[in-house]
Amino acid sequence: MWEKKAIETIKSVNLKLTPQRLILIEVLCEIGIKHPNLREVLEKVREYFPTMSFSTLYTNLMLFKGLGLIDLFTFGDETRIEMNMKPHFNVYNGEIRDFCDNEIIKRIEEKVGRKVRFVIVIPE
Amino acid sequence: MWEKKAIETIKSVNLKLTPQRLILIEVLCEIGIKHPNLREVLEKVREYFPTMSFSTLYTNLMLFKGLGLIDLFTFGDETRIEMNMKPHFNVYNGEIRDFCDNEIIKRIEEKVGRKVRFVIVIPE
DNA sequence: GTATCTGCAAACCATTTGCATAGAT
DNA sequence: ATCTATGCAAATGGTTTGCAGATAC
Questions:
Q1: CATH code, B72
Q2: Nearest chain B Cα to A99, which residue?
Q3: Cross-chain CB nearest to A124 (options B108, B117, B124)
C-alpha cells in the first residue's frame, strides 16, 4: 500500500527507480514503523544491497520527506523515521511506539491553537 | 524562588558557588522559560561574564540536570533548556511555548500507561 | 591547603555537502 | 544522449572530553 504509493509518487515526478530506492522503500515498509535511526536503516538496507552508501540513503530520505512519503524527527540526538502520517503519539518505552487517540489529539489542538502532526511523549 | 532553591541545592552537596554558577542561575531565571539553546544561554551569560567558556556552561548545565534543577531536551537538532519541571506541553510556534492542562496530561498517561514528564507537540 | 572548577583546545559523531563517475530512461 | 543518481570523502556543527592552571572554601 505505502510501497505502491511511494513508487507511483517517484514515477509521477519523473525521478528514477534505482535499485537503491526500491530497496529503501522495501526496508521502510519492513522496519519504518519502529522509528529506526539512520544507521539502523542503512544496516538493514545493506543486508539486501551491501554497497549502499550513507550519502545515498540520506539523499533519498530527504527526497521521500520532500515528497510527503515519510517524516523525520529528532529523538535522543538522532534523526528517526516517522511513517505514520496521521496525528498520533510517539512514546519512548525502550523503543518508540505509536499510540492513536483522536479525542486527545483534538483536545490538544484546541488547547494550543494549532493542528498537531504528532506528539513526542517524554516519560518520567 | 527557583534561584534560592538552586543555591541551596548546590551548597547542600558541598559544591562551590563560583561567580560563573551564580550568573548561570540568574540567566536561567531570566531566559530559561523560553527554552533557549546552549549558544543562546552562553551569549546571555557573557553579557554579565564575558570570559565564560562553553565548557563551563556545559559542565554546569549537566550538573544542574543531575541535581534535578533543570531538564534538557532536543528540538531541531539542538539541546534546549527545560525549567518547567511539572508535566506540560511544549509547542513550537516560532518559539517554544509551554501549555499546561492536567486533564489532558492525565488522559495521555492513562492512554500510554506511563507518567508523563513533558510532551513535545510537533505542529503541521 | 586541597579538592573542585574553569577554560582552552582537541575529539567526537551524526549529519550535510561537493563532486567525479555511473546508471536509468 | 541526457539528465539524474550514487558513493567517496571531506566539511559542518553541536556537543563532549582531557587536562593544566586557577579558585572557592
A1: 1.10.10.10
A2: B112
A3: B117
Whether residues B35 and B68 share a domain: the answer is yes
Q: Say whether both B7 and B38 belong to one domain.
A: yes
If one counts the domains in chain A, the total is: 2
* B39 in reach of chain A (CB within 8 A): no
Closest CA to A104 of B34, B75, B98, B116: B116
Angle between helices B19-31 and B38-48 (to 10 degrees): 120
Residues of chain A positioned with their CB less than 8 A from the CB of B99: 111-112
Q: Considering CB atoms only, which of B115, B123, B124 is closest to A123?
A: B115
pTM, entire model: 0.91
Tell me: the pLDDT tens digits for A18-51? 999 999 999 999 999 999 999 999 999 999 999 9
A15 and A42, same structural domain?
yes
Phi and psi at residue B89, to the nearest 5°: -110, 135
